[in-house]
Structure formats: C-alpha cells, structure tokens
Write a structure and sequence with these properties.
This protein is an alpha+beta fold. It has one domain. It contains one helix and three strands. The protein has a three-stranded antiparallel sheet, covered by helices on one side. The longest helix has 24 residues. The protein is elongated, with a radius of gyration of 12 Å.
Length: 57
Amino acid sequence: MIRSFTLDFWIDDGWYVGKLREVPGIFSQGANLEELKINIKDAHDLMLAETTQRIDS
C-alpha cells in the first residue's frame, strides 16, 4: 500500500524546515527542498522502524 503525506515547509535562517501534516512529531530540515524531502522520508522511516520494533518486542 502506498500512502501519501503532505509536507508543510518553510525557510528559517536559510534552511528548509518541514513537517508531515498527517504524522505528528515528524520534522526535519535540509539545505534545499530536495534534501528536505530525503531527510523527512528518513525521519518517517526511522519512526516506523521504531514502532515496528516495539510491537515485535
């Protein structure tokens, strides 16, 4: 299943900062929009891995 998320982003002190609207607590930053997209995906993947690990324990 493929899920889509909304990336809300803004520029703060020269950095692109963003969060996923549908997933509270997922924030990241990047030097440009493409880097932010990569970093926010990594943050989301880490959250999923941690959640899965807790469920498996």
